Fold:
Amino acid sequence: MLPACPIDLRRSAAWCSVCALMQARKMATLFSCPPFVYSAPMPEFPAPVVRQAAPADLDALVHLEQASFPGDRLSRRQYRHHLGSASACILVAECGTQDLAGALVLLFRRGTRVARVYSLATAAAMRGRGIASHLLTAAETVAREHGCRAMRLEVRSDNAAAIALYRRAGYRPIGTRANYYEDGADAWRFEKSLQPAIARATGK
Structure:
């Protein structure tokens, strides 16, 4: 007769079952993952090349104007005039394609140190790439070089995207113009100081 086993085999078997269950749960927790969600990174586009427009850009400027605005467009004659005027500066943005990515018309007036953004357009295929922001920044540099202390512009009161762009760029509303556009829409007027904060505080 074999000697009594010091271990209770029934208890050992039950304990092993518990251990096995706990181990199984542990492994399930270890290897279980939350639902996989792929978040595509935001595309990074190269900065556009911004330059002053030349007479050779006339056709492309008119095409962009007509494609961007249903009304209140600059005519071919107006663009030709601005291209040769000392009181205007037309900036264009290029992104390696034959078509212009965007354009901005900046106007100056004698006797005032305020420049005016008369038109800002971005090609539909190039929207979302920061084209308008680059053009606006370049225009502010040009305005400073002309001795301007501020930039002003008008924007349709229902153009939320453009209003958000100008606010992000530091422009603040200074008034409205009722029935400003051809279709009767109102315009909001915005302004941005081009002077450093210290100069504004001292009035210089």
Observations:
- The first strand starts at residue 49 and ends at 52.
- The two ends are 112 Å apart (CA to CA).
